[in-house]
Amino acid sequence: MVRKGFKDWVDKGMPRDARTGSPPKEYFSQRGQDKWLKISWEEAFTMSAVAMNNIAETYSGDKALNASRGRGMTPP
Fold it and tell me: Is residue 27 part of a domain?
């Protein structure tokens, strides 16, 4: 099972704000109220791998440095 908003975000290519790296709120605003969708194990494993890769790319290296600055954080 996967939350509909999360699946929609993944299906759209995991868009993020160029300045902050944050995903659009529309995909995550329904947490706790969103519908659950039944997906295959293969799709669940693929979605998990894609999401973990996206997180690693977003929050490491120069992209992470720029995203933290966009959120007003000063990196070490």
Answer: yes
Residues 6+ apart with CB under 8 A from 1: 36, 37, 38, 39
Mean pLDDT, range 50-59, rounded to an integer? 87
pTM for this prediction: 0.72
In terms of residue numbers, what domain contains 47?
A: 2-70
Residue 46 lies in a domain: yes
Whole-number Å distance between alpha carbons of 9 and 70 = 21
53-64 as b/e: b if 16+ CB within 10 A: ebeeebeeeeee
**Residue 76 covered by a domain:** no
Rounded to a whole number of angstroms, the distance between the first and last alpha carbons of the chain is: 39
Count: domains in the chain = 1
Beta bridge partners of 76: none
